[in-house]
Amino acid sequence: MRRRTFLHLLGLGTVGFGMGGMVHGQDQAGDETITLFLCGDVMTGRGIDQILPYPSRPRIHESYLKSAKEYVGIAEAKSGRIPRQVPFDYVWGDALTECDHFAPDLRIVNLETAITTSERYWPRKGINYRMHPRNTPCLSAAKIDACVLANNHVMDWGYEGLSETLSSLDSHDIGYVGAGADSSQAEAPLIFDLPGKGRVLLYALAHHSSGVPLVWRADRNRPGVALLRSLDSAEADRLAGAIAARKQAGDLVVVSIHWGGNWGYEIPPEQRRFARWLVDEAGADTVHGHSSHHPKGIELYHGVPIIYGCGDFLNDYEGIGRYDAFRDDLTLAYFLSYKPGSGSLARFVMTPMQIRKFRLHYPSKQDRRWLRQTMARECSRLETGVTDLRDGRFELELG
User: Domain 24-396: which topology?
Assistant: First the structure.
């Protein structure tokens, strides 16, 4: 069984960075904090997989398109020629500059694709994402520490695909959480020991409202994902007991949840209640929500950040156009800094990004303004403020 504790060696120093053609100074939170990089769905399968060095067989089983190459063609019709067999770091683009600037202690993504060569796709699901195992270094290129796998695409290519996904991440020394060979492994946290700062406990869960088939739930004798049975207080109490059994004084607890639909800014009341229960009953220091294809509002509850929907960080939707009003090409990189030993949030910075030619770029001033106004509107509905920083980033007002 995979060893669930990882030692992360901290990077040294920071560098200046460019955004929108301008060079700015450093504003890193400092070595006295624990800094996390969080983002939403990283969908490196299908069209994106086709431009990486080792593309999978392009055949897909969708009602609309039959080849993953067609998604590349749709994107090119909108944005121009996309190179093929790109370097593994290509898709991350300017996000790598941001990570170098903030030097996060941990980099956590929701990996929403299977990593497999399996041809046994899950029937009647409609969309089946996969990335070739030989393209796994694209995750290493971004120095990803943890992949959340509790989502509605990790088993798109069945149990064989899940097994190969886990082995591919293992072979590249990338941590994973939220799926496994049985319920014990799927529900276990990923524990990071940060020298001189303490431990970070990462839990990952999915809810069927995000499209996860109920049969994907892991049990004692079956592989699968850590799937919530409900969003009620009993489930929160169960999680609280599991977290209490492992949590030590000074630990930072992050609960990552894949829930809700892909489009729309409304946050269901049951999600707000459950997120608050996680804070009150389970001692969560951060709730990392995802599934929405665009960023949603953020709440500060007793000083604890609740991100209800991070938005897609990488996808192959470019040029499809059906939901352009939501601007799913605009996304956010989230950098959260905490005081070690207390779990108190010290700073919450968001960097706007734009997906163009299957690569992350700094957006134009106009697009950045649109995203900032949207986030300010949605956060205000949760009684949270957003400040527009001079360097083009946004900052959550901590009160």
Answer: Purple Acid Phosphatase; chain A, domain 2 (3.60.21)
